[in-house]
Amino acid sequence: MSAPADETAGDLPVRDVGLNLAGIGGLQESSAVQNVKARQAVSRISREELEDRFLRLHDENILLKQHAHKQEDKIKR
């Protein structure tokens, strides 16, 4: 049996709802709800823990940027 040319051919069909004003409002509402939940989760964590997490993520971000820059330099050569 041959594999389909498109790997998504076996996926289930989905309904295209298009863009309408109700859809945009629904997206904004769910985003607002997610924002509230995220704020509640952050408020449960101590300030020290938040600072530690921020600094770790900041350091990791700097290291990733440096690594990406080195890779770009290698590609240029």
UniProtKB/TrEMBL annotation:
One of its GO terms (cellular component) is photoreceptor connecting cilium. One of its GO terms (biological process) is retinal rod cell development. GO terms for molecular function: thromboxane A2 receptor binding. InterPro entries: RPGRIP1_fam. This is Protein fantom. It comes from Chelydra serpentina.
